[in-house]
Amino acid sequence: MIGAMEQPPTPDQRPFPPSQPTGPIGVGGGKRARPEPMPEPRPDPGTPRAARTAWLVLLVALPLVVAMQQWRAHSKPELDPAAIHAPMGDNVETNARFGTRLGYALGPAGAQFQNNVDEAASTPLQRLRAAISAGELIGPDEAARRLAGIIDDLEQVDPGAFAEDDANARARRALILEDARVLREHYESIAINGSGTQPLEVDVLEGLVARHGYFAELVGVAHLPANHERRKDLLGGALVPLVVMVLVMCLIGLGLLAAVGLGITAIVLLGQRRIEWTMCRPLPGGSVYLESVAVFVVAFAALQIAGKLAAMIGSPVDMIVGALSLPAQWLLLLCPLWPLLRGVSWAQVRDDLGLRAPKGWMIEVLAGIAGYLALLPLVLVGVGVMLLLLWAQGQFFPADPDGPGASNPILDMIQDLNPVTLVLLYTMATIWAPLCEELIFRGAMLRHLRARLVLPLAAVLSAMVFGLMHGYMALQLIPVTILGFNFALLRAWRGSLVGPIAAHALNNAVVLALLYSVAFVMYG
Known about the structure:
This protein is mainly alpha-helical. The chain is about 65% helix and about 0% strand.
């Protein structure tokens, strides 16, 4: 148990008495009523000893969580370097999925999508896969012609040009050549016989699927008529999610236009000192809200460790733990209630964490959305920096162009397209994350840091911890961290957590709606 607890303050000592508004919240200017006098600041409940203990727990648990999250983000399966492996989201596959599924819906007009596939294909393996895509979008004659060119190029390569220690490259080259010959013969037969072409033998097609994934699935239906059920199952159903994707992108475009106007307005008002920072700053000395953060990080680490242990044990334990992992995270919503176990009243916890709306709940929601849009340009700058650094990383540390490609943890979950998984993931992103993460990072942690640090530094530190808790690659954490910084500014501006919760929910809802629509276009 973390250190002894001070007696909770009486109602008239609380930093935010529920019955007394703290004055105007929001943008200054104009004639306004004189605000109620603020009560004298006082330390949050808790003791210095408990604070030191909580910091010690965080210094142990937080690096552990970060290490597990980064290990998961960077972990890759052990692959045979002499084999060819199915793509898992490289540029050629992504463009081919979009192109072939939209091309199936649009008919001959879909041939234009092949250009994007060809631009992404540079190596013989990528060109072979682009030829399969061309067979779907342009025709079997085009696929056979391209495959013949690949065969000629590979047959002209002197095997002695490969160094003795490059046996893996020679093995992959032999596999590509063998597959190209099989596929050329198959597409030449389709060009002549059409739907009368004999399908590939099962073991041959299974080998192609293992090496080429979605592209081999295209080969498996290439000889079938357009209205065949197997072709519909593989390629149909892209138009509706495409419409949704376009609508979401239009919504994002309108949001960006609003962001420019609101951002300029915010800069002007800030320069005129007409923006009030209304978050109450407690005196140093408390610990109870830092303890809440420590409890959350430890509980989150426990869930991560349980998942790792289940994976080591194997089936059926890993399947059971995997199915329970998302529902179990809802239990983390109990962590912000830790102060109640330490003797703090619910009224004080509610006010200290910012679960209050003196101007009205709808006003706080709208203010949170407006503030989110005004600060959105900072996130776009972060995205730009991330893309620049990723480009530089690719220049200095180029990845294997014939490798499986990088996967997205969210898209990996969406690919399953299990309705229960989709609902759980969406509710996690739009309800759990805004509530739990805002209560912990902008409610508890920012409040504790604000008692000791100036607002910019407190906002940056809480945002960094918020970002590091996410399971993305290091460079991808840049816009996430900036988003956390923006939410901290909203909290300090409004003095309420309602706005940041609304902004967080809006951000996740729009991003996930876009990812869902993209996944349905690509995977059906």
